Give the backbone structure.
Amino acid sequence: MPRFVIVGGGPVGLAAGIEARLRGAEAVVVERCGGPVDKACGEGLMPAGVAHLARLGAVPAAAASHPIRGIRYIDATGGRKVVVEAPFANGMGLGVRRLGLSEALRERAVGLGVELWERTEALGFRADRAGVTLETSGGSVGGDWLIGADGLHSQVRKWARIEVVAGPARRLGIRRHFPVTPWTDFVEVWWADNVEAYVTPTGPHRVGVAFLWGGRRGRGDFDTFLAGFPELAARLGAPESSIRGAGPFDVRVSTQASGRVLLVGDAAGYVDALTGEGLALGFGQAHELVGLCLDGRWAEWPARWSVITRRHRMFTRGLLQLAARPWLRRLAFRGLAANPWAFRLALNHGAGRPALTG
Ligand SMILES: Cc1cc2nc3c(=O)[nH]c(=O)nc-3n(C[C@H](O)[C@H](O)[C@H](O)COP(=O)(O)OP(=O)(O)OC[C@H]3O[C@@H](n4cnc5c(N)ncnc54)[C@H](O)[C@@H]3O)c2cc1C
């Protein structure tokens, strides 16, 4: 039976394992943490991501999630508050606590017979024309393909000598949760100069707040950032989780494949978290990649990756221009506020649109 060896039991690695089992292949997922795994994330899942989860049979518990109807941008800089919002045109999104997402995927993977090697570090691999052998802290494991789903700073990518170029937008992110009843079913993005706050309902009585920033703001301090959004801060009170961070983003990868070693999710290249699409895109990639491998067409993966991520990369780079240029952002948001249909169009041809696959 064909066998996938997957490094990384984050959402995309687990999704790849589930995809493999759903198509009758074997899968081993090697994850250095004990599950369920937490991580810095805005925790907003776009409608396409919700559709992927349903197809995978991994639906997060209601206590760890909250339906999301659309996206609202709020810009109170420049002496005037501008609010622009639009609902998703293609179904509901989901705010989901990362632990709840991980739990749902992990349970489904184990239920389908994915071999989950937790608290196991991947250490390196050997590959030849016939297959791959991964060395781990728990022994070696062989398979037909090695899938690197090991995140932004992928080791598999380094071991495969795949070149990485840092893009110009060196941004970082941090997140924290607050035990308050969500006041909206929109993801709110509060914009200021060089930092944005992403506010996502992630449970019946929980709201997550993530900050993304770039430029000269150093490593970033959660409380200092929050103090810059007094109207938001007044709604939150004391946090219920500790701070987690990630970045820098904008990791450009020369290729997503080296023989039978294939990259997926953040490991395959990442622009920025500001469209909240990483999870939906990663699930779509896992679906495509497993299919290509089983069809004997894994050499096509880099070209396919480029096609299925193109719209997202263009949209994200466009928004990064607004994040870096306050005057342009204010101008754009005022224009969108006067023409709400334009924001609806942008959202649903950008962040809210379903992935091309799945
Ligand atoms: C601040 C912030 C906000 C974000 N907001 C959103 C959002 O609202 N919506 C959205 O869709 N996306 C968002 N994202 C992006 C999203 O979090 C990522 O796209 C997603 O986590 C990618 O999943 P992944 O499985 O590819 O990688 P990861 O989640 O990084 O998982 C990689 C896994 O590999 C494991 N690993 C790494 N190396 C090894 C090794 N050597 N051996 C064993 N295991 C290893 C790690 O422990 C980890 O569990 C955000 C990201 C950030 C930082």
About this structure: The pocket of flavin-adenine dinucleotide is lined by residues 7-13, 30-33, 37, 39-45, 121-122, 149-151, 155, 173, 175, 210, 246, 265-267, 273, 276-280, 282 (CB under 6 Å).
